[in-house]
Prior knowledge:
The chain is α/β, with parallel strands linked by helices and 395 residues long. The chain has helices at residues 4-18, 58-71, 79-82, 86-99, 110-115, 118-121, 136-143, 157-166, 190-199, 222-225, 255-264, 266-269, 276-291, 294-312, 332-344, 374-390; strands spanning 35-38, 41-45, 103-107, 127-131, 148-152, 173-178, 180-181, 186-187, 203-207, 234-238, 249-253, 324-330, 347-348, 350-352, 362-367. It has 2 domains: 21-51 and 293-389, Aspartate Aminotransferase, domain 1 (Alpha-Beta Complex), CATH 3.90.1150.10; 58-291, Aspartate Aminotransferase, domain 2. The protein starts with a helix and ends in a 5-residue tail after the last helix. The model has no long low-confidence stretch (mean pLDDT 96). Pyridoxal-5'-phosphate binds at residues 109-111, 114, 135, 137, 178, 182, 207, 209-210, 238, 240, 249.
Amino acid sequence: MSTSLTEFCRAEIAALKDAKTWKKERVLEGPTGARVRVDGRDVLMLTSNNYLGFANHPRIVEAAKKALDRWGNGLGSVRFICGTQALHKELEATISKFFGTEDTILYMSCWNANEGLFAPLLGEEDGLLTDALNHASIIDGTRLCKAKRFVTPHGDLSALEKALQEAATLRRRLFITDGVFSMEGEIGPLGGFADLCEKYDTAFVVDDSHATGVLGKTGRGSAEEMGVMKRVTLFTSTLGKAMGSAAGGFTTGPAPVVDLLRQRSRTSLFSNALPPAVAAASLEAFRMLMEDPSPAHRVQKNALTFRTRMKAAGFKIPDGIHPIVPVIVGDTAKALAMSDALFQKGVYVSGFGFPVVPQGHARLRCQISAIHTEADLDEAVDAFVKVGKEFGAIA
Ligand SMILES: Cc1ncc(COP(=O)(O)O)c(C=O)c1O
């Protein structure tokens, strides 16, 4: 038996531990919520994508339970063989209604939606333009596509225009951006992107995983927030964050595009259908938000409150409105040590360092939820102030 692979892994693990960048897995002893039970005690959850607090909402849990009884545990199949139930069609129709689009295709995750998006739509004669800070699933998706790739510096409209000019002679063009960049909590310049895509006859795609259900007056996301809802050709997004928090993703847009994806997108064609309980829970999440957008308003308000209090306490926080609130501390080892110290004080927040973020920009990524109370936010800020002083992050 060859031992070279395990030896390689052992050495890599040792290097990660030496650099103090080894990521610990904490084990939750119950469901997620504003507070979670870990190591036998309750801590404030400040690092989850459960933006609306739907993950363990009674209506969502009930919808999943009922779906198990009505539709069973799974289909044992991909969608196009025998894996499509009326439930999947209803969720797709509801997502289309929510976005005001013609059609939607579900995937097991937004990772799969992104990975399966480009190759069916673009070939060698086409141009695929992508923002440099886009999510890893977009980067991997672009690698599976033969189109000429243009990676444009993050949020740089003049660089994008240059790339679009260079791509102008190609047969078709598609530009994709994250709606909200997950390490920064920053909304992309969607108005400028839309202008350029229209000027250069380019499909404009927004991955709105961190904004669906979260931003905008009715929770439609970053495009609603920026007033460009009707100017986006396609949205990809996740059901694993605000909209149920379990799993699933989708691409939504013009009917012919979605229909072709159903025929050719490999991550749909060769991967099982979304489990019924997961689909039903996300369907309920969309219904709840369409009935009453107040959870989106609450998370937006909580994000502003937390941002304002943390800035007043002296922390370095990039400007913004999103419930992802990065607290920049510089060094990776310091970010991870501060995360441990906060955990000891009852606040669960993740530290991120190089290579996930640029060298010297390590951070604690706070994520605020609609179900955090004022008292929760105060408790988090108090713990940050104590730990921040201990580590010299604030005076
Ligand atoms: C921008 C973005 N796109 C895609 C994904 C992947 O989503 P999923 O968990 O549904 O695969 C994420 C998840 O972190 C994300 O932040």
